[in-house]
């Protein structure tokens, strides 16, 4: 999970990728052309305070890190995760939601 975000990659995943809705995330996937990347987006529209967005980003990043060994498909895809819930969910809920989302990836 790289902190550097390539905006052209984000736009490419968003425009050309496969969209999967799975609460609490909207997931966009695209076959990777290099090292696979995971981009986490927590919209400012949903959470005005950066502290809340950072909390959700940290929880999501940790859940992705914990689930990565279980889903080998993640090593072949670029993924854009967009948080869509209006509530701040706990780590277990986020991890379960990501598990369900990753299971839907083909």
List the helices and strands and how they pair.
Blueprint: H1 7-16, E1 18-22, E2 25-31, E3 38-41, H2 50-67, E4 77-83, H3 91-104
Parallel strand pairs: 3-4
Antiparallel strand pairs: 1-2, 2-4
Helix pairs in contact: 2-3
Structural account:
By secondary structure, the chain is of the alpha+beta class. Helices cover 40% and strands 22% of the residues. The protein is built from 3 helices and 4 strands. The protein has helices spanning 7-16, 50-67, 91-104, and strands at residues 18-22, 25-31, 38-41, 77-83. The protein has a 4-stranded mixed β-sheet with strand order 1-2-4-3, with helices on both faces. Strand 3, helix 2 and strand 4 (77-83) form a beta-alpha-beta unit. Helix 2 (50-67) crosses helix 3 (91-104). The longest helix is centred in the middle third of the chain and has 18 residues, at 50-67. It is globular and about 35 Å long. The mean pLDDT is 90.
Ends: how far apart? Answer: 21 Å
Give the low-pLDDT segments.
none
Coarse morphology:
globular
Strand content: 15-25%
- Total number of beta strands: 4
> Taking strands numbered 1, 2, ... along the chain, how are they ordered across the largest sheet?
1-2-4-3
Helicity level, as a percent range? 25-40%
- Report the total helices: 3
Structural class: alpha+beta
Largest sheet: 4 strands, mixed
Q: Kindly provide the radius of gyration, computed on alpha-carbon positions and rounded to a whole number of angstroms.
A: 13 Å
What is the N-to-C succession of helices and strands?
HEEEHEH
User: pLDDT average, as an integer?
Assistant: 90
